[in-house]
Amino acid sequence: MLTNVGLHPVREQLHPGGDMLANALVASGYRLGCVGKWHVSANDPPAFGYDEYISLGDFLEWRHDIGVSVPDEIYDYSTQVAAVDPAPADLSRPRFLADNAIRLIDRYRGESDQPFFIRLDFHGPHFPNVVPEPYFSMYPPDSIPSWPNHDDPLDGKPGVQRIKQRHWGTDTYQWSDWQPLVSAYFGGISLIDEAIGSVPDHLAEAGLEGDTLVIVTTDHGDTIGAHGICNKDYTMYEEIYLVPLIMRWPGVVAPGGACSVFTHHFLDIFASLLEIADQPLPDEYHGRSLVPVLKGEPPAEDWPREAYCQFHGSHMGLYSMRRLTTPDYSYVYHTNDIDELYDRNADPFQLNNLAEHPGEHADALVDLKRRMVSWMAKTHDHLHNDWPVRWLADDPSLVASAPGRRSTKW
Q: Which residue from 81, 95, 104, 175 has the fewest beta carbons nearer than 10 Å?
């Protein structure tokens, strides 16, 4: 999967036979339920083995059936929106989705002793931010201070960042324009937080708390005014890529603990779920199980010392970016623009791009580029060919070992 289905000139999507997670869980006797957002395939979840699927469209139909209209703003993806859903919070989309996840828990528990796996995919927090009261007014806009990097002039940054401001119509925004949007965004987060919390509360009431792993995470963050930019595409800032990962498993995960190692998000979650389901990982797999860490064991000595991220393009088409993050640095490779290098300790808001003039960070930049080449080779990144490798590493041995003209029979 390179991007959301329907938003890209490359229309690759997930196919039922290729969904290793669903297939593995079904093989282990799990019942599967899916609630909410699903934009990885033209095939709906039942084609992948899910017993029931409650979609975002089902929410719209439900509101129509009960005679409660949905604001037009909920469909507005042209730019940032902050609007009130006049319906009470109990009729909001997050509450509808959480209630249906709870319904599935009760259904599965009542029908058989099979273990179950439920995906609960909220639409937000994500623009358009259409939020009911009291959440819409929970965070007064005037009380929200500016992000420290809101006024980033983007000097010495890739040109695509200014283009994204123009694409989303935020190039003239002042902080006063962002405050209502951030207010609604915060309100939406609080609404979703409460909806999420209702699920483990119900597990406890149903006597399933100690036998159920609950994972809370998200696919991406949102700059929502950081660097004067909105959304999450064509930039690889911390606000977008450093996302929450919370796990709750009474009797296994100690309350209040924290994981100090880099996790590769869905790759490591997938490996963890397969271990729990007693299913083998594929022969070549780029993630690893978090189960030992969840049980309090120290991370393996060979645990990655960095996180590797890819971006392939979104609404405006193909655009290749790669990000390598260590505890000290964040390095971003642009295939057709200047690179980025940020000191995560001295410059946590990523204002000063060191890539063109690294100074005392020059050796670190060389090391990061070589490590990026190593990740590209390990993961069979389609950018791993002799052209990017020559640019990144300037090492004849690495260039010679990369795919390219030298290994092609003309």
A: 175
Report the 10 Å Cβ neighbour count for 340. Answer: 24
Structure confidence at residue 30 (pLDDT) = 97
Instruction: With beta carbons less than 8 A apart as the criterion, state whether 332 and 320 touch.
Output: no
Dihedral of the alpha carbons of 10, 322, 265, 280, in degrees to the nearest 10: 70
Count CB atoms within 10 A of the CB of residue 345: 9
Tokens of 310: 């890819």
- What's the rounded Cα separation, in Å, for the pair 173 and 227? 11
313 token code pair: 């393009």
Contact 263, 299 (CB under 8 A): no
**Does CATH number 3.10.450.40 belong to domain 16-259?**
no
Q: β-strands 340-343, 329-334: how paired? A: antiparallel
224 torsion bin: left (phi>0), alpha (psi -120 to 50), beta (else): left
Please give the class, per CATH, of domain 307-407. alpha beta
Domain ranges within the chain, ordered by starting residue: 16-259, 307-407
| Pair type for strands 317-325 and 329-334 | antiparallel
> In the predicted model, is pLDDT for residue 71 greater than 80?
yes
Higher pLDDT, residue 399 or 97: 97
Residue 346: DSSP 8-state: T
Phi-psi category of 394—alpha, beta or left, where left has phi over 0 and alpha has psi -120 to 50?
left
CA distance 84 to 132: 5
pTM of the model: 0.93
